[in-house]
Write the structure tokens for this entry.
Amino acid sequence: MASIQRTRMRENWKELAKAWAKFMPPGKPSVGEIAFFEQEIKNKLENNKTPCALILGSTPEFRDLLAKYGINTTIVDINPDSVRAMTSLMALKNEKEKVVISDWLNMPIKDGTFDFVMSDSAQDNIKFSEFEAFFEKIARVLKPGGEWFFGAINVHRDDVISFKEYVDSYKNNPGKFNDFRYFLLQIIRLAYNEEFYNEENRLFDFHKIELKIKELADKGLLPAEAVGKLTIGVDYQQPMLSEEEFKNMLSKKFTLISEFRDKTHPAMRLKWTAILKKA
Ligand SMILES: C[S@@+](CC[C@H](N)C(=O)[O-])C[C@H]1O[C@@H](n2cnc3c(N)ncnc32)[C@H](O)[C@@H]1O
């Protein structure tokens, strides 16, 4: 999740690497998602032995996959510390990997360069008002018929819980919140609640949840340890959309080719993984 990334960005790259190594899907690509993308890469290699790929960010799981097939890879990341940290976690070395330090929205890359682009929840780091421009930029750097291997943290509008339900789920079974992924599922299900969500810019404010949880703890209505269990501990906001909204927006530039649903943990329902073809 960007929350972890952003917090750690202010720390040194070794801390960031440690945090990423411990981090879990849906916050990073799962084994199943990697296998889903790998199959598509194998299909591509049958027709084109030298595809060119772009990775948005420096996700080591993606870079190792492309290294395995010796694919010409460009990674674009705005933060050199992040690149260094993620590189330290790679199992393989890709002699054909190039690093570009840039913002994705302005990356200095010619139109029609790549056969495919890979990203995992990259849009968490972008303002909703810039989503259209971001999708347009990805479409532009792809060759005609190029594909976007896309992953999004999202939550369905009908999967939402109220703040009371969130707190009650902790009170009824605090032990479940020791599972980071269960915590993630529950906290993200608070999206679209008016008090934490701005519909106009689709911004979900995790910090406002923290303030309310602290208030309950201060009043003695929650034990002190609940604050650490029910909050992410940083002042953090990110855009949050439903899968339907993503599909609608992306359909202006891309055609949906296939989708993958990881069922290994209930929290994986927060992840939509898809292969999109430039329309
Ligand atoms: C690809 S995202 C994905 C990982 C995770 N889902 C997350 O949101 O943190 C994280 C990476 O994107 C980079 N990044 C964030 N915003 C960026 C931007 N606008 N342009 C280029 N890189 C960016 C960060 O430096 C970080 O290495």
User: Anything to note?
Assistant: The longest strand covers residues 142-153. The first helix runs from residue 2 to 9. Residues 158-239 form one domain.
